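tool=predict chain=A
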Amino acid sequence: MRTFADTLRRLLPIVLLVPAAASAATVRYTLDPDHTYPSFEADHMGISTWRGKFNRSKGWVELDKARGSGSFEVSIALDSIDFGQDALNAWARGKDFFDLAHRPHDAVYKGRLAGFVDGAPTRAEGTLTLHGVTRPLELRIDHFKCMPHPMLKREWCGADALGSFDRGAYGLDAGKAYGFDMQVALRIQVEALRDK
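tool=predict ok
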């Protein structure tokens, strides 16, 4: 007949594994649109570098730091483009560039987090969908940190990711005939709060 002590000895390893499994669970975070800042740099005929940003974005991140895995999706509102010049903003939204009257209004970058070191990802591997075209895009993550939010008392994570892409590959080749370099530097500064 099995004693209580025998039963406890058999169950103890299982009981001890439950917290470990729970701590390895994937956690979901929602991007804070007021602290997420997609920005870019683009050539102007080799004379200067145009810099701009997008004022509206949204998305989420799912992260399992213990297992070194994660996924993400960031949607960027193209009609919120901001060069700091109204005429240039209107041109970019118009028929000669984004053509938002006939094309999708959002660019979407989604994929997985990779290259984890001490629970922090070092790169984002995914696809960028822009102007109706989807192509692979990898961003380097230079900085990643999580901490308790001092006011909201929930886990708060931030990162700075950067890379580059060929805008001509997305059908956005305005200025190519004039000698514009088609490479665009993309940087996404992001902050996200753990969902309740």
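Confidence is low (pLDDT under 50) at residues 11-23. The chain has one domain: 26-194.
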